[in-house]
Structures are given as structure tokens and as C-alpha cells.
Write a structure and sequence with these properties.
The structure holds 2 protein chains of 2 kinds.
Chain A (H helix, E strand, L loop, with lengths): L20 E12 L2 E12 L3 E5 L6 H9 L6 E6 L2 E2 L7 E4 L11 H5 L1 H5 L4 H14 L15 H14 L4 E5 L7 H17 L3 E6 L2 H7 L2 E5 L6 E5 L9 H6 L1 H15 L4
Parallel strand pairs in A: 3-8, 3-9, 6-7, 7-8
Antiparallel strand pairs in A: 1-2, 1-4, 4-5, 9-10
Helix pairs in contact in A: 4-5, 7-9
Chain B lengths: L1 E2 L2 E2 L2 H17 L9 H13 L1 H34 L1 H15 L7 H8 L3 H25 L3 H9 L4 H39 L3 H11 L3 H28 L1 H4 L3
Antiparallel strand pairs in B: 1-2
The chains are: A alpha/beta, B mainly alpha.
Bound molecules: adenosine-5'-diphosphate and magnesium ion.
């Protein structure tokens, strides 16, 4: 069997073992009191790849991402990052929050450099690094603005720049574009792909948009409704050298979207 | 306020009322109301007297000490209540009872406990001011977005750093609002305390002037207190304005 092309009916966990797993999720279960949020999650995430966790809202995507981040303890199972078991947050992982989590009292520059500030990087150096990532996400000239002076899309660029600035191996993005309008969303997705290309990092990306998942992902993990379980793993294998608009019209792209939609539709009732 | 298209500053309304007062005073209708000009002259006179200077010193001192204690106890207690459920359960009920209790009624008890001196006044100021400071600090801490705390945690911040760089800063607008109301209540506390104790500071002077029907000095003293309360509140309000740019934007 082909190890990368997996249709819904031939899903076999043994075949998706990756070559260079940076993050390994082993038997993760999570209960919130009597609520079972996640059940027996086993996954591996490869370096330089973007993996999307896709599933209906409430299926435990945020929970799984926060467990990987070390922000929420798992009820059972473990997370291995770079060969070491996770016991809490660590410098090799950075989180991008759905609600941006920007400090309203701090400028864009200070917000972007805040991860470095907490690590004790001297002001000169962290401002230099922050400025370069502010440029990278297209916010040049906004260094001294406050978050409330920016649009939702620009705020999330600040959140992304902050995560990049600490130079973590693993980037965890929790529905980063959910508060961004449709036009900016596409621009964002293209920018994200450019950043994935540029930085050899492991991206774990959460979304509930099928189109977004197919467009940006190297691999899509479909989660079932609560309790969240891995229901399918799909490698879209989109040719990203093409023009973004052509990709969105490409039959291959549309087929994968349709396949996922068919896989999820029986949950949608 | 606008009149005939001109903007009239707030001070104008004060001046109008002072004029009305002056006219009523000149008409000699009520002996309780001497002319405003006479009150102001009496005020300047009063400032030269040793008894006023001494009373002011005592009053300011007990107010400052009482407020310092109220802030020093109130802010940390409110912050802890906002962060730690058990502490909130232990103190919550009491703070809510005291914040609206008629504390003047407690002053006679305080006199028995702390004597007829400055200590009683300090405690009165403290008791008047502290509860609202606690409640506002608590409210400020409780509205800090959990994702901000999580963000700091994800970048490796320690508990102390999270407290210093996130929670206290995010709660600052509410903490300052509590201190502003606390200051106003503290002024009430120092006046009520002194009037009830009646042998120290302004209380002694009020007692003296009202017994000798020296209404000019009596009102002059009252004006001093009004002015002090307004200035203090304006100072804190000014501090609040400096951070408003983000308080309004969250
Ligand atoms: N802190 C919490 N306490 C209790 N239940 C929670 C908590 N966080 C999430 N849950 C529950 O766990 C389930 C999964 O939540 P979440 O991970 O946020 O899902 P998703 O991100 O996929 O929408 C939901 O049913 C949610 O109500
Ligand atoms: Mg979520």
C-alpha cells in the first residue's frame, strides 16, 4: 500500500508513521470532570510539515493543541517533543491563540518581543528580532501602534510574529484566522504557506474550515465529534508551485475537499 | 455646558453658586450663611493660626497613614481573592458586608478600642476606604483574559512574572478606580472620625466654631475639606486617564 495516498476507506494507522517525528502524541485521553474530550489519540508530526487538526467544533482540537503545548495536562498518555516527554510549556514550542492574546497596554513591538522578553533577551536584541518578524508578517510601520489600533487580521499577524520571534521548532496555531474576514483569510493562508516554506518548522494547525485545511496542509487529521478520536488521515498533496487561484480551481483540490466533506457529513446531522 | 453657543467651563457653575451664596449672605437672611467673601477671608485668616496648622497636620497625617494601610492591605487582598478561590470564599462575604455597612456607627466602638486619639482616626480612614479597594482590585483581576495568562505561561513565565507583567497591569484600571473611590471615602472617614472623636484635628475646630457660632470659620473649614477631596480625586483620576488608552480599548 502506498504510504502517503490514503483514501478514507483504506486508513491504517501503521502506515502513517513518519520519518522524522518531532512531536509524538501517544495514547492521549482527556476528561474534563465527567466530560470525555479526547480518547486515545496517537499521532506523529513531521519536521517542516504543516499538519491540520480538522473536526467539528467541540471535538477537542483546542484541547489537544494545548496538551501538546503543555498548557493543559492530559488525563493519560504522553507527548514527546524532540525525544523528550512534555511536562509543561517549553521553548521549543510556541502557541498562536485564537483570540490573539495580545497585551492591550503594549505596542506591537513589545508584544512581538514579549516571548524574548520573558526569556531575558536584552532589549536591543529582542527589538531587532521583533522588528525583523514584524516586517516578515507585513506590519512594517506599525511597530509603535497598540493592538486596538489594528484590524483583527493585523492583530493575528502580531500573534504570529510573536510566535516566530522565539524561534521555536514547533508552532501550534489554534484557528488563527477564524476572526479574519474572507478576503484577508486567503492572503493569510498564502502568507502562512510562504512562512512554512521559509522556516523549517513543524506546524500544527487547527481549523474547522475544510477549504482552509486542504489549501494549507501537508496532512490533515480528521477528528470525530466528542469524545475526539482520529477518524481519518488525509494527505492532500496539492501542487503548491501553481498560482493560488489556480490551486483553488484545481480538480485535485476540489476532490479532496469533497472527500473530506463526505467523510464528515454524517456528523453534521 | 454651552450657553449662547459658547462653551462654559465647569468652574463657571461654581462661580455662579458662589455668587448666589454671596447675595444670600449679604441679605443677612440666615445667620448660618455668612457672605462667601467673608468665608474666604476667614479661610485665609485661619491658615495663619497655629491651631489650624496643627489640626491640618494631624488630619493629613492620619489620612495618609490610613489610606496607605487601606491600599497596602486592600490591593493585595483583592488580587488574592481574584486569583485564589479559597481566599475569595473566606473573605468575600465580609468584604461585601462591610463595603455597604454604616461604618460611622462603628466609630464609638473604635474609640473604646483605640482611644480618643489619632489611632482611632487612622482606623476609621482605613475602614472607610479599604473595602471598595478590595472589591475593585478583585474585579480587575477576575476580568483578566485567561488567554493572556496562558500566553505568558506558554512563553515560560513564572507565577511571579505573570502576576507582575500580566495580572497587575491588566487589572490596573480597576485597581486605580477602587483607589479613587477609596480616597473619597477616606476623606469622609477622616472627617466623620474627627467629628465623632471631637478632640483632635478638624473635629476639635469644628466643635469649637460651631459652639461659638463662628460660622465664617466653620464654613471656611468645610471649604478646605471639599477642596481637598476634589483635588485628591482629580489626582487619582489623572493617573487613571493616563492608562485609559487601553482600558477603553479592551
Ligand atoms: N476548561 C474546560 N473545562 C471543562 N470542559 C472543557 C474545558 N475546555 C474544553 N472543554 C470541553 O471539552 C470539549 C472540547 O473542547 P475544545 O477542545 O475547546 O474543542 P474545539 O477546539 O474542537 O472546539 C468541549 O465539549 C468543551 O466543552
Ligand atoms: Mg477550539
Amino acid at each position: 500500500m502506498n504510504a502517503t495516498a490514503l483514501a478514507a476507506d483504506e486508513f491504517d494507522p501503521a502506515s502513517v508513521v513518519t520519518r522524522d517525528p518531532v512531536v509524538r502524541v501517544e495514547g492521549i485521553c482527556k476528561h474534563y470532570g465527567s466530560v470525555e474530550a479526547l480518547r486515545g489519540i496517537d499521532l506523529q508530526f513531521e519536521r517542516g510539515k504543516l499538519t491540520t487538526l480538522l473536526g467539528p467544533s467541540g471535538c477537542g482540537k483546542t484541547t489537544l493543541l494545548k496538551i501538546i503545548a503543555g498548557l493543559v495536562p492530559a488525563t493519560s498518555g504522553r507527548i514527546i517533543v524532540n525525544g523528550r516527554a512534555v511536562t509543561g510549556p517549553g521553548p521549543e514550542r510556541a502557541f498562536v491563540f485564537q483570540d490573539f492574546a495580545l497585551m492591550p497596554w503594549a505596542t506591537v513591538l513589545r508584544n512581538v518581543g514579549f516571548g524574548l522578553e520573558l526569556k531575558g533577551v536584552p532589549a536591543d536584541e529582542r527589538n531587532r528580532i521583533a522588528r525583523s518578524y514584524i516586517g516578515e508578517v507585513g506590519l512594517q510601520g506599525f511597530e509603535d501602534k497598540y493592538p486596538h489600533e489594528l484590524s483583527g487580521g493585523m492583530r493575528q499577524r502580531v500573534g504570529i510574529a510573536r510566535a516566530f520571534a522565539v524561534n521555536a521548532d514547533v508552532l501550534l496555531l489554534d484557528e488563527p484566522f477564524s476572526a479574519v474576514d474572507e478576503q484577508n483569510r486567503r492572503k493569510f493562508q498564502e502568507d502562512l504557506l510562504r512562512l512554512v516554506e521559509m522556516e523549517r518548522k513543524t506546524f500544527i494547525f487547527v481549523t474547522h474550515s475544510i477549504e482552509e485545511a486542504v489549501y494549507v496542509s501537508d496532512r490533515i487529521v480528521l477528528l470525530s465529534p466528542r469524545p475526539g478520536r482520529v477518524s481519518n488521515i488525509i494527505d492532500p498533496r496539492i501542487d503548491r508551485t501553481a498560482d493560488p487561484d489556480d490551486i483553488r480551481r484545481d480538480p485535485g483540490y476540489l476532490d479532496v475537499v469533497e472527500e473530506i466533506w463526505q467523510g464528515l457529513r454524517h456528523y453534521a446531522e | 455646558m454651552t450657553l449662547f453657543g459658547y462653551r462654559i467651563p465647569m468652574m463657571a457653575s461654581l462661580i455662579v453658586w458662589a455668587l448666589v451664596w454671596e447675595i444670600v449672605g449679604r441679605l443677612d437672611l440666615i445667620f448660618l450663611i455668612p457672605p462667601m467673601t467673608a468665608i474666604i477671608v476667614a479661610g485665609f485668616d485661619l491658615m495663619q493660626t497655629g491651631s489650624w496648622q496643627n489640626a491640618t497636620l494631624v488630619t493629613v497625617r492620619s489620612f495618609v497613614i490610613g489610606m496607605a494601610l487601606a491600599i497596602g492591605v486592600g490591593v493585595p487582598l483583592g488580587v488574592m481573592m481574584g486569583r485564589v478561590k479559597i481566599i475569595d470564599n473566606i473573605f468575600g462575604l465580609w468584604v461585601n458586608i462591610f463595603v455597604s455597612a454604616p461604618l460611622s456607627a462603628l466609630v464609638p466602638v473604635l474609640m473604646i478600642l483605640f482611644g480618643m486619639g489619632e489611632a482611632t482616626i487612622v482606623v476609621t480612614v482605613f475602614l472607610f476606604a479599604v473595602w471598595i479597594i478590595v472589591l475593585d482590585a478583585r474585579a480587575g483581576v477576575m476580568q483578566v483574559p485567561p488567554s493572556l495568562v496562558e500566553m505568558a505561561r506558554s512563553y515560560g513565565a513564572s507565577r511571579a512574572t505573570i502576576m507582575r507583567k500580566i495580572i497587575l497591569v491588566a487589572a490596573l484600571p480597576e485597581i486605580l478606580a477602587g483607589i479613587r473611590i477609596g480616597v473619597i471615602r477616606g476623606v469622609k472617614g477622616v472627617v466623620i472620625g474627627q467629628i465623632l472623636v471631637a478632640v483632635i484635628g478638624y473635629g476639635e475646630l469644628f466643635e469649637l466654631y460651631s459652639r461659638s457660632f463662628d460660622m465664617e470659620r466653620f464654613w471656611a473649614l468645610t471649604l478646605f475639606l471639599f477642596a481637598a477631596a476634589m483635588v485628591l480625586s482629580a489626582v487619582v483620576e489623572n493617573a487613571e486617564k493616563r492608562i485609559e488608552y487601553y482600558a477603553g480599548a479592551r
